[in-house]
Amino acid sequence: MTTQTYGATGADVINATKLSRTPFVWAILAVWGYAAFALSQNGVFQSTAATPPIAIAIAAIGPAVLFLSVYSVFAPLRRWVDGLDLSEIIALQAWRIIGFAFVAIWGLGEIPAVFALPAGIGDMAVGIAAPAVALAVERRSKGWRLGAYGLIAAGIFDFIVAFATGILSRQGGPFDFEGHVASSLLGVAPLSMFPAFIVPAFFILHIIALIKLRRA
Questions:
Q1: Count: domains in the chain
Q2: What is this structure's pTM?
Q3: CA distance linking residue 198 with residue 60, whole number of Å
């Protein structure tokens, strides 16, 4: 449950909770992921020109709003966040390397380049940079705080661009160019798990990292 995190000199030891070793987090993720997949299977996240993507917008943004709302009024959650290992929170962003899937699926002609390239390349860049930034945070290397803020800013910007281009390139959207495929697959499982589950989960990690940086 806990690990020892050392400061720049190695003398300042802080007991930090490992998020990846917290059972209730895995339970929440399991329920959340199953619900997102079940909703996808029932076509809840599909949209056309005549049906605005309200459901997918709620799925993508709602969890972060809920987390912040609970955090603001629930002291145990604030204490739990305070005890988390910041370097691990940063390191978990390395999993965003799976954004390569967008580029691969674009290569198969199944999703539009206007979405796949910025979203996929942005995710991969954040995923590749995350371990180095996390190591700097753990060691409190020179510039570690700036590096952490930079990674968070890049990660959030990537989400905004991906969400915007995904919505705008849906069937009948402004970026649904003639002769090009629309982003309709993003409303269908398994790709719908990105906007409905994976993106909001990583966004909450960014929020936690920001909170810890501001309170450090």
A1: 1
A2: 0.89
A3: 9
